[in-house]
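To whoever is on call:

I kicked off a structure prediction for a single chain this morning and the downstream step that reads the tokens threw a length-mismatch warning. I double-checked the sequence; it's 261 residues and nothing unusual in it as far as I can see. Pasting both halves so you can look.
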Amino acid sequence: MATLVTFHAHPDDECIATGGVMRKAADEGHRVVLVVATRGEMGEVPDGFLGADEQLWQRRVEETNAAAEILGVQRVEFLGYQDSGMMGEPSNDAEGSFWTADVEEAAGRLAKILADERADVLTIYDDNGGYGHPDHIQVHRVGVRAAELAGVERVFQATMNRDEIRRHQQAAAEQGESDFGPPEDMEIGKPEAEITAAVDVTPYLKHKRAAMRAHASQISEESFFLAMPDETFAIAFGTEWFIRQGQGPGITETDLLPTTA
């Protein structure tokens, strides 16, 4: 049995980026731990969604715990930083925001959890945070340093396969279907040549989508994630992509956990 620790920026990031590998690890008998840097205070909800005295962060913590149960997580921890909002917003520089956090101090908080858990594997994000969100970039910085402090050698950077997205976009356009994925000018994920691990999570897509649904304050039934047909969802989310330093060139791994753990 091994221990997988997944480190994320906000509630709901875990199911989108690594929900499949989390449930896969749990089903295979491994321990899964979720660490979230913020409580997602900067999210948006429709008027009347929250109770009269309810704060958004309270709802998002509840949603995270519900999603974690679906994904087989055995421990959930929040580091206690404030959501920084999207890049360029004044909230980036607010006191207590994750973006302004001292990397060494934040890494120490995460490293303590890694050491307590004797983590075998840590997932973070790529150096652009997948799409340039400040808190996601900070997850990369803090996660890399925490792994050094705790001596975790297997560190996987969750990313998106930019080339695969473009291939699906082109195929959809040729078939006269609606556009697939983000705009062409959005810097998202990494080129396929930089990716070293591709994990097939299609057997766990029902759990991944159910976990998304648990984050109802941010992922509505009309959202991109839940409105697409099952076949399209499988194309978009059936593989989870990662980069591990020292691996490659090319995709050389199809799982995150050590086979001899």
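Update from on-call: the warning came from a stale cache, not from the record. Cleared it. Sanity check on the structure: The CA atoms of residues 5 and 184 lie 33 Å apart.
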